[in-house]
UniProtKB/TrEMBL annotation:
Record Pfam families: UPF0102 (PF02021)
Lineage of source species: Bacteria, Bacillati, Bacillota, Clostridia, Eubacteriales
PANTHER family from the UniProt entry: UPF0102 PROTEIN YRAN (PTHR34039)
Entry-linked HAMAP family: UPF0102 (MF_00048)
Superkingdom as given in the UniProt entry: Bacteria
Name listed for the protein in its UniProt record: UPF0102 protein JK634_03525
UniProt family annotation: Belongs to the UPF0102 family.
Organism field: Clostridium paridis
GO molecular function, one term: nucleic acid binding
Length: 120
């Protein structure tokens, strides 16, 4: 049975494989703080990357990137600041990326879009 949690987990797994193939190191997945959650925290060279993943099965629900509003961004930023502070990672540059995945279950196809530095 397809449900929102399964689709989200599948999308995050696919996103992790995608960025690993691009040379990123995964540091954390589904990192929670009192401020919110970040789907993937990765490192590439000296850049700490906080990644929000949005997976959709049908485009009639809108594009994944459209669901990341001001409040979602603010929660991600607060959570990232907490992560940097807790892990004493002030020496690293940081950015926020977005990965959107669209699944076409009937045709067994998927597409991925990567938006680097999406919050600026």
């Amino acid at each position: 049975m397809i449900n929102k949690k399964n689709i989200g987990n599948y999308g995050e797994d696919y996103a992790c494989e995608y960025i690993k193939n691009k040379g990123y190191t995964i540091l954390n997945r589904n990192y929670f703080s009192k401020n919110g959650e970040i789907d993937i925290i990765a490192l590439k060279e000296d850049v700490l990357i906080f990644i929000e993943v949005k997976t959709r099965c049908f485009s009639n629900y809108g594009l994944g990137e459209e669901s990341i509003n001001y409040f979602k961004k603010a929660k991600c930023i607060k959570t990232a600041r907490y992560y940097i502070h807790k892990n004493n990672l002030y020496h690293l540059n940081a950015r926020f990326d977005v990965i959107t995945i669209t699944l076409d279950i009937d045709r067994n196809k998927k597409s991925i879009q990567y938006y680097e530095d999406a919050f600026s």
